[in-house]
Amino acid sequence: MGGGSIFSMLYCRTERIETDRVFTNAFLSLLFVAALFEGAGLFFSEQITHLLGADASIFSLSHDYLKMILLFSPALLLNNLMVCFMRNDCAPKLAMTGILCGSLANVVLDYVFIFMLGMGMKGAALATCISPFVSLAVMSIHFITGWNAFTLRLVRPSLHIIRDIVSLGLHAFFTEVSGGLVIFVFNFVIYRLMGNTGIAAYGVIANIAIVLTAVFIGLSSGVQPLMCRCHGRGDNAAVKYLLRLSAVTAIIAAAVAYALLFSQTTPVVSVFNSSGDPAMRSIAEKGLRLYFLFMPFMGVNAIMSVYFSSDEKPHIAQMISLLRGTFLIIPAVFIACLLHSIALVWLAVPISEMLTTVTAVCIYIVRQRKLSAADAKNGLRAARYPMYRV
Q1: 313: left (phi over 0), alpha (psi -120 to 50) or beta
Q2: In this structure, what DSSP letter does residue 294 have?
Q3: What is the per-residue pLDDT for 166?
Q4: At 243, is the secondary structure helix, strand, or coil?
Q5: Where are the alpha helices (DSSP H) in 274-341?
Q6: CB of 383 within 8 A of CB of 351?
Q7: Looking at residue 375, what is its pLDDT?
Q8: φ, ψ for residue 341, nearest 5 deg
């Protein structure tokens, strides 16, 4: 994400060699990270499986899956890198087609390996590991046809470029990592408050949340290349327009999704409650109506993170991701646990997202006022001194 953002900013104002340097340094960074995963898969996969809590009954299954995923990490990482750069290289439809083909291949191969060939968990892992190759094969059309504005080039690695890539992409990293951390914390707290029934109810909510969260992640990923491109051209009016348009779209999508969930709570929960457990159904229905109040705030936060990153203010984007994903939500969940209130547990996410939204909007308003004051001052100076250039 960080490499794609820099590439998009440079796209309209530099020579091709500069965009190639960005892609090459992003690729070299990927190789370094992939080497760490490869080493973990080859030498420490058993220790990692134990560390993640696998007991004797599931150790073999967990280890088979984890080791294969780690060994195929270069392909999985390269797939993500190509999607980000192609989306910023005016090829979002081809990138989307590649992802869809890879995902479809994963589903088909799951059936073939698990059911037809009886490979079990190894088959599931192998299907996941083959899917990025399908996706990359489709996206290679971008290079075969010569539409690409980036390619690997023999250049010296640049710590400055890598630092910028990491800085601009760190907010996306925090968002992804915090999702897993939040699920872990919620499981820990809900188990102590409601036992296994509560865990089952949270499983329903978490699965639905993954789908709906993807809507906002997709929206922010879609507007990111546009904002970066406009910022690279210095078109601040277009950036503001994109910010307003995407934020309003996110809020409308959240309102529609919540209305559907609120009105269809019982049928939705029933899909996951095949045993017809009334206790689980009651907990899940109440939790669903409280938990998903987070959606409009999350949509705005996702957009604001991308806006500040595109405006080359990565520290603010990182702060937004950390506030909503770690610094606010985890204390809120543990406070709810101390108060023995499952309702407050469900409300922890909406409250954290709302406070983050208020913080992000306040920072935005303050920055806009400072920029307006600076523009007015520069305009006055330019009027007094005609030769002055801003």
Answers
A1: beta
A2: G
A3: 93
A4: helix
A5: 278-291, 295-310, 314-322, 329-338
A6: no
A7: 66
A8: -120, 110
Spatial distance between the Cα atoms of 237 and 372, rounded to a whole number of angstroms = 12
Residue with tokens 């309003």: 248
CA–CA gap between residue 123 and residue 117 (Å, rounded):
8
Q: Note the pLDDT tens digit of each residue in 132-184.
A: 999 999 999 999 998 888 999 988 899 999 999 999 899 889 888 888 888 88
Show contacts of 124-127: CB within 8 Å, 24+ apart.
Answer: 124/65, 125/64, 125/65, 125/68, 125/69, 126/68
- For 12, phi then psi, to 5°, come to -95, -5
The C-alpha atoms of residue 22 and residue 32 are separated, in whole angstroms, by 16
**Token pair for 312:** 């080359």
Place of tokens 């029933």: 270
**H helix runs in the chain, sequence order:** 2-10, 16-43, 45-51, 59-71, 73-88, 92-110, 120-139, 141-144, 159-233, 236-263, 265-272, 278-291, 295-310, 314-322, 329-338, 342-384
Q: From its phi and psi, is residue 107 left (phi > 0), alpha (psi between -120 and 50) or beta? A: alpha
Copy the structure tokens of residue 354. Answer: 């709302």
For the chain, what is the radius of gyration of the CA atoms? Answer: 23
> How far apart, in whole angstroms, are the C-alpha atoms of residue 354 and residue 18?
40
Report yes or no on whether pTM surpasses 0.85.
no
Token pair 């970066």 is at which residue?
228
Quick one: the chain helix, strand, coil %, rounded to 5?
85, 0, 15
* Tokens describing residue 196: 């296994």
Dihedral sign, CA of 366, 3, 127, 37?
Answer: negative
How far is 273 from 205, CA to CA, in rounded Å?
Answer: 12
Give the position of tokens 């037809």.
116
186 within 8 A of 344, measured Cβ to Cβ: no
Low-confidence ranges of the chain (pLDDT < 50): 380-390
DSSP string, 273-291: -TT--HHHHHHHHHHHHHH
CB 118 within 8 A of CB 146: no
What is the distance between the alpha carbons of residues 390 and 381, in angstroms, rounded to a whole number? 9
Contact in structure between 8 and 168 (CB atoms under 8 Å): no
Domain boundaries, the chain: 1-157, 167-390
Q: What is the DSSP letter of 113?
A: I
